[in-house]
């Protein structure tokens, strides 16, 4: 009977350790997924900001360029 109790105690430790490792792995995967999503959102926001900065304003800058070109040719 004592051997059966020892075996059960040993398996209990193993299953507890396995559950803790499994739960830790799931938590790690969830955290890494959240971090990946946040980094992706930041990347898209940064890319949109770069596109916005690199574009010239539509109306005024182009009309100024045209007027400068006209002055040079005249």
Provide a compact summary of the structure.
With 74 residues, the protein is mainly alpha-helical. The protein contains two helices and no strands. The mean pLDDT is 77.
Beta strands, count: 0
Number of structurally distinct domains: 1
Count of helical stretches: 2
> Could you spell the SSE succession in H and E letters?
HH
Radius of gyration from CA coordinates: 32 Å
Q: pLDDT under 50 segments (min length 5)?
A: none
- The percent range for strand residues is under 5%
Distance between the termini: 109 Å
Structural class: mainly alpha
Overall pLDDT, averaged?
77
What share of residues is helical?
A: over 70%
Shape: rod-shaped
Main sheet properties: none
Description:
The protein is mainly alpha-helical and 74 residues long. The protein has one domain. Helices cover 91% and strands 0% of the residues. Residues 55-74 are annotated as: Disordered.
């Amino acid at each position: 009977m004592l051997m059966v109790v020892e075996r059960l105690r040993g398996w209990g430790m193993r299953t507890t350790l396995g559950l803790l490792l499994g739960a830790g792995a799931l938590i790690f995967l969830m955290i890494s997924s959240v971090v990946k999503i946040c980094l992706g959102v930041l990347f898209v926001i940064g890319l949109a900001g770069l596109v916005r900065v690199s574009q010239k304003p539509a109306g005024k800058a182009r009309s100024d360029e045209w007027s400068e070109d006209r002055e040079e040719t005249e």
